[in-house]
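Q: A reviewer asked whether we had any structural model of the full assembly, not just the individual parts. We don't, so I'm hoping you can provide one. Inputs are below.
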Amino acid sequence: MSEAQNRSVLVVGATGQQGGATAAQLLKRGWRVRAITRSATGDAAKRLAEAGAELVEGDMDDRALLVAAMRDVSGVFSVQPTFITPELSPDVSHDDEVRWGKNVADAAKAAGVRHLVYASSINADRHSGMPTLENKREIEQHIRALGIAATMLRPVSFMENYAAGMPGQSAIGGELTTAIKADVSQPLIAVADIGVFAALAFENPDEYVGRALEIAGDSLTPPQIAAALSRATGRSIRHVEMPLEPLREQNPRLYRAYTWLNEQDLGVDIPALRRLHPDLMTFETWLATRGRALLGA
Ligand SMILES: NC(=O)c1ccc[n+]([C@@H]2O[C@H](COP(=O)([O-])OP(=O)(O)OC[C@H]3O[C@@H](n4cnc5c(N)ncnc54)[C@H](OP(=O)(O)O)[C@@H]3O)[C@@H](O)[C@H]2O)c1
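A: Here is a predicted structure for the entire assembly that you could use as a starting point for your response.
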């Protein structure tokens, strides 16, 4: 493998949040990036090409195409969309996520890739009963069973969710309505920092291969989040705690999910992560930079 191929990564999902942040970090650090997208003529794909990425049109369902795209790269960054709600993720089922995640890992093995970084999720190592997390658990197990050199990055909730109308994290109408209890601290991470950790993993395989790393940049209770959003936007945003009990019958899955989230100790060692990545963003830092623009403040 040439020196250039040694520092080259195929990024899946490069037109999206985590893949985009990873591609941007790798390009900034002088790595070659090849990006898979289903449409090379989309705006995000065009921006990627302008930034220096090589685009390959393709689909995670096409294993042969994935293997061909991985032949001369040293690393692969893998992320899959998940089912959230019919409105937010109309084209994805739970089965799609698992099939795509396994396909990318199988292709990395077939192509002899040296290092796979898989964007998983916090709690993917526990039996949660939450399909979006159980899917990642299944993909992680598949990657481990393949015996390939891999790093599992397990991000917590994205700070960007507050600008994306994500259920339970939307502050539309001046209210942050969530069933997370007022005294439960929620870890958060800026998407850009996921890209930094992915790049650190590719640059330091001796430290990162074989590791699963929970990543967060801050941890705040819902009232603290509402106060930070109010300061950053200049609008009054108050936290409203959604009562859980009515959900027990109306939406048992959501009821179980929130009950579980309220009981979990999501403690992530943020000071240790900051030693690896000193510029790791707090919610305030993110709001003062990228967040403010995303929130239209
Ligand atoms: N939001 C959170 O707080 C949070 C926290 C932890 C983990 N997660 C996990 O993060 C994941 C989503 O990551 P994200 O937000 O970075 O994704 P995203 O922004 O929604 O981007 C999805 C990417 O997947 C690509 N894609 C979709 N279908 C494809 C297919 N069939 N073949 C090839 N590419 C395809 C899209 O590319 P094209 O459209 O260009 O083809 C796009 O680049 C989910 O699994 C979620 O559970 C989210």
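A: Points you may want to mention in the reply: The longest strand covers residues 32-37. The chain has a mean pLDDT of 92.
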